[in-house]
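[job 4471] stage=fold_predict status=RUNNING
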Amino acid sequence: MLVITRKTGEGIHIGEDVVINVVEAGKDKVRLGISAPKNIKIIRSEMFESRGFNVQAAVNKVSVDFMNRFLEDTPTQLNEIK
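[job 4471] inference complete, writing structure tokens
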């Protein structure tokens, strides 16, 4: 991890297309301005980390719903085969 110090109004470049500027710096928080191409997703760390849990929860919900529908339909399908 690169750690650097910047003052309000200063920034850093990442590659040729991404610029991060310090818009405001306070006692407990820093406001950043980020300029990047639209194809680059910018997401806060806490959102990115919780996204994995949300995806897993969605997959589990879909799986449970599918299995419930499958189990509900199975006796009907088996009776039709007889």
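[job 4471] summary: The two ends are 65 Å apart (CA to CA).
[job 4471] exit 0
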